[in-house]
Amino acid sequence: MSKKIAILPGDGIGTEIVAEAIKLLDCLNQDFGLDAELETAAIGGAAYDESGRPLPDSTLALCKQADAILMGSVGAPQYESLDRETRPEWGLLQLRASLELFSNLRPAMLYPQLVNASSLKPELVSGLDIMIVRELTGGIYFGEPRGIRTLESGEREGFNTLVYAEHEIDRIARSAFDIAMLRNRKLCSVDKANVLEVSELWREVVKDVAREYPEVELSHLYVDNASMQLVRAPKQFDVIVTGNMFGDILSDTAAMLTGSIGMLPSASLDKNGKGLYEPIHGSAPDIAGKSIANPLATILSVAMMLRYSLEQTELANFVDVAVGNVLNQGFRTADIADGTNSVSTSDMGDAVVAALRALNDS
Ligand code: IPM
Ligand code: MG
Fold first, then answer.
1. Which of 46, 160, 294, 306 could form a disulfide with 333 if both were Cys (CB 3.0 to 4.6 A apart)?
2. Which carries the bigger pLDDT value, residue 318 or residue 114?
3. Looking at the structure, do residues 146 and 199 belong to the same domain, yes or no?
4. What are the start-end ranges of the H helices in 55-162?
5. Model pLDDT, residue 126
6. What are the tens digits of pLDDT across the range 54-82?
7. 303 and 243 part of one domain
8. What are the phi and psi torsion angles at 52 (to 5°)?
9. What is the predicted pLDDT for the residue at 267?
10. How do residues 229-253 score in pLDDT, each as one tens digit?
11. How many Å lie between the centroid of ligand 2 and the Cα of residue 133?
């Protein structure tokens, strides 16, 4: 049965990298029997320019109908002074919240071909394969009250609320335990329970859920220590589960261990496995329009989409293998080039499509 994929290129390099993912999807449709219909819509600054809103109703309606969503990235400097609710990032946050995409999977895995691109010593990172499970629709990103108020003294005060209800902790913990069961069965929950009540509850609920997963080895770390351990000895981790803001920060750190944030995909899933797929990097306004961005994170996001939302595990494996093969063939965009020759965004996309076709022929 035909599946519908909503395509949201967004801002900055978003349009360039998504164009390469579309080439890949077209190839999967033509040569590999993927029966997917693609429909494009605006989000972020691009949507604001068209309609004055970063998440137009028509885009949200399309995303609701679709089986999966592929996004590029949102944000650009010219929108930074807009009111919060018209900023590009708000569109993305509203999309995550409206579709209840609470479970954000951010793998950080190092391709052996790129071991020298990491800022850490090869022996610390070779073979690295971590999955960060970040809670995505709660915590301080969405907690109320929030705002900036003026006190009686005339001084202004900014405030946000870090709040997690038990059911929110329970469902993200289950998501993480389920993933750990499919991997090396080690889960580290990251919190700040030595200071925050919300973390105390987080820890308690995670421990309760752990009773149902006796095969998973559960540990707990405070977030400051976790950030240190990630750069000290990252291979100690298998799956990490944490709240929205801690996950935002730790996943950027983990990404850098692998050499380039340009290599890492993500999936944001609801309780039924419907998902939004996006590279974890941002819109990179400094390199937008230059055709030097790395499209592999977006292409690998398509692989995650095939795996988690479209039930096409075999095609997902093909895409992963094709990406490995282009790296073996020496194709590198500037971010992973290590001082040697680099190829353009579209050359890299073409190389992946060619590698994919070669798999079909072999
Ligand atoms: C991310 C980004 C977003 C976030 C921004 C763009 C709102 O940093 O996906 O990690 O903070 O969640
Ligand atoms: Mg982030």
1. 294
2. 318
3. yes
4. 57-65, 88-98, 122-125
5. 94
6. 999 999 999 999 999 999 999 999 999 99
7. no
8. 80, 5
9. 97
10. 999 999 999 999 999 999 999 998 9
11. 13
Range of the domain at 189: 104-263
Cβ(16)–Cβ(344) below 8 Å: no
In this structure, the residue with its CA closest to atom 8 of ligand 1 is 248
Structure tokens at 69: 């969503």
The continuous run of DSSP H or E covering 46 comes out as helix 45-51
Ligand 1: residue of 93, 105, 252 to mutate (most ligand atoms within 8 A of CB) is 93
CA of 311 to the centre of ligand 2 (A): 27
Nearest in space to 102 (alpha carbons), one of 254, 198, 242, 263 = 242
The torsion angles phi and psi of 40, rounded to 5 degrees, stand at -95, 145
* Same domain membership, residue 42 and residue 124: no
Is there a contact between 227 and 258 (Cβ–Cβ < 8 Å)? no
pTM above 0.90, yes or no: yes
Q: For the domain that residue 146 is a member of, what is the CATH number?
A: 3.40.718.10
How many Å lie between the centroid of ligand 2 and the Cα of residue 280? 7
